[in-house]
Amino acid sequence: MVKKIHKSFEVGSDSNNIQADVIILGCSLPGIVTAHKLKKKFGNTMDIVVLDIAGTPKMISKCNVSFLTDEEEEETMESTEEEEEDNTEIHANDSMARHFLTKYAKELNIPLPECILGPYSKPNLNKLFQHRNGNTVECSADFHDFGYLNFTEKLELNQFQARLDHSMKNMFRYFEGDKESERKKLLYYDQTTMEQYICDSLLFSTSREIMRTTVRLVCGVPADSVSILFYLHQCYRTSSSRNHLDGDNTRLREKLLGYCRKRLVSQLEQSIEEITLPIKSIKEIRTYSDEQVILLTMMGETNYICNLLAMALRPDELRKIKVEDQLLSKKHAAISGAMSRGRAKKFVIEYDNNFWAAQGYSGDIFSVRGPIIWAMEKPNLSTTGSLGRYVSLIGYLKVKDNNRNASNNKSAVIEQLVKLFGPEAEKTISYKETEIADVFVPRCGDYVALRKFTGEVNTKLLEWSALDIFADGDVVSALQAGHAAYLHLLTYLRPQAQTFEDLSTANWPTVLNTDAAEDLLSYMNYKQSIRIVVYAAVIFIGFRLIRGYMQK
Q1: Which CATH number characterizes residue 460's domain?
Q2: Helix 205-219 vs helix 228-236: angle between axes, to the nearest 10 degrees?
């Protein structure tokens, strides 16, 4: 399948060269998804090679869930397969996240538990919201309904999120890159930080803290590090900015638990094993006569030549490789090189019994005080319905970026849980916290250029879609990035091979049920109303003064 040739292409007559139609550089999850789809589509009719760079960290999430053994799964697979297929059809259109997770789980024959396919809340148990001063409020509805806030704060946050949804719909659903007005709007959103946007739009401190916490949950970094456009794009993956505070959000739960990442990676690597070549390192990528891409290795080893190269490297890996300006401009190299890694902390605390349920609580916590900022009862992730020996709470902790060597938060977490649930929270079985650093965030002002760079056809030789992997450890984001790269490659290689499903997935719409009146009202908030009143008063007083002066 892979052709070995000895034509030097000015890289030295002693060099051995391997040639292929398509080369995928990197074995990140998006890269192996791309390779798997291409191999499945073209089989042996096209030479496809995956280069696995030795020494590259695999970024396997530490949040993986323990699975049944292969033998046990084979016994239960037949009984659960029909039920899973029905669940997939029911829930696949709910959100982009669930669509990609169920699509690849079904394709690779991986069972998914019901709590992932159809998450649900317990209406008879209360959730807990904690204010900055430590006071708690019970609520039976979802956190994103804001029933625990007073009327003014609730109205303000609902208005603000309606505005975000409206902006998101305009940015990603109806965006036309050639429109100059849309381009200016994109630049405005990207050059204004999220923190400034929050402060300019929200009047009450509680509303601001909730949005800052939401940005931290969605992006993995503080609000003042995120551009509005980047935040909207992350919300776009789940079709709305409204449902990021609850365990019902599939992507947030799936990201937190790293569910089925290990199994997905294993199955995908097996499917492309025969076309994967281990290499030590790549020192340079350049073109030859604008017809082929050449990947030069270190120490005069084998070089690789292809007609089309797909990049599946993380931004920090790309910095080590020299790329010809024709393939990657200095501006784009600087943008990708400056992308910082987001950071969050996950905790799991085990108890002997479910005492919070006995008190009437679901285990769901949302706090703007910390150190716990969001938590839920760890769901049952067994595909057979079996229960664990202990019950657990799982969630995110506050992380201070300027203190990366912070000690364990166990005592502070237990103290917070005691305040929320009482003295029973002190009797723990185990406590564990782990770092989650799987999101790459571009600097404010760079995201527009990066989106254009990864979304447009820049050259017939190089495909950069898989660079848009801001969350390689986030399973759904990685699946989506790899699938997008596959669709882009398909348009270069054989456009007529695209199916209706391919085209519909590429143009996935956001699920936003808003009308014209809601869109108009979404731009009204307390601060905007105060400004309008002040401006109207100034105009009125000025008019009266001028009128009095004219009468005199």
Answers
A1: 3.50.50.60
A2: 70
